[in-house]
Amino acid sequence: MKHLIPALATLLCVSFLSQANTVAAGKTILARGEVLATDASSAQQRNLKRRDTVFGVDRITTGEKSKAQFSMSDGGLIALKENSELNIASYEFDTATQQGSASIELIKGGLRSISGVIKKNGGAYNVKTPVGSIGIRGTHFELQLLGGDMYVAVWDGAIDLTLNDQSVVSLGSNEPFSFAHITSLGDVIKTTQAPAVFTQNIVAINSDNEANSESEQQSLAADNTSENNTDADTLLADVYVEQQFQALSNASLIDQIAQRQGILNYQATRFDVSSSLGEVSDFSMSMSVDFDNGTVPDGEIIFNDVGGNWYAAYSGSIDLTKLDLAVTFASHNNNRAAGEIDAIFLNNADTITGDFSLSEISNPAVNASGAFRLEP
What we know:
- By secondary structure, the chain is an alpha+beta fold.
- Helices cover 15% and strands 51% of the residues.
- The protein has 5 helices and 26 strands.
- The protein has helices at residues 4-21, 117-120, 213-220, 231-248, 251-259; strands spanning 24-32, 35-39, 45-47, 53-55, 58-62, 67-72, 77-80, 85-94, 99-108, 110-114, 125-129, 132-136, 140-146, 149-156, 158-163, 168-172, 179-182, 188-191, 263-275, 281-290, 295-305, 308-319, 322-332, 335-346, 351-360, 367-375.
- The protein is globular.
């Protein structure tokens, strides 16, 4: 017995150290198809789904016809395309000091990234690739590895790509070129037009870094064009885009919200909802926003599936450009339920977009979720 005590103490110490070194890097906001995370320290694997945490020791892979989007701890966004592999070497951000650093590595496939507060506040943000290392001077860029070559697009801001031979390629704002093709031999072909591998349009951003919402949504939702995708993908991409640019520069929207007066009632104009029990019908959602007091006095979600009627009541408050909401009561048929709601303002506060999830308390396998857009 006395020999077991040191062994148990050692195991507890190792477990504690492992947990201490596992830093939450961000949250999964979209996972379609096969999205897998492998812990580099333990080699344990887990399938990622929406709302799952990703850590600073994770290697993330996407399969065929799969994709993922991650909201990082500093408000940054990373989108992975199909057949991609990304290593999160480190991603640390202190919410108190608003300082941090990040290092990620694209091993194969493609990614799109919009940097957050770490880069905005001058922190180190490094992206490694098989052809070189990228230093970020801007906000929005895209990479694609294909047959040993790498294609680069800078949609906003600028980057400095240090190639394996230590030469530096600068692209983006205030540079002659925003796009490049780096061959497997190290040759660099710069262009003013996006290579064909990138199917999206250049994002229009004004001098205040406020995104043009419609072109933004079309641009960052470009991966949502396959026939198997749903409106939920596009709605979630709206959330993805707006949260990102609000993290970069939200002063304009904050002012617009502050200038609003009175109570405004919003209703669902777009939605995509699914249930574990099958088809959903008769969906409605409402939200009352009191701009004078900065609160959400009440809101409701109502719809049906084959198991009965879903109902959720919620309330909350305005948190800068987001809505801090909580479900106060939920049920499915005669069974109590619980849930979560995430939402943000868009378009000068004329639109609210977000997503929700509900599940029966006694039987969580019975659940429903969806994305929504609300307008007055």
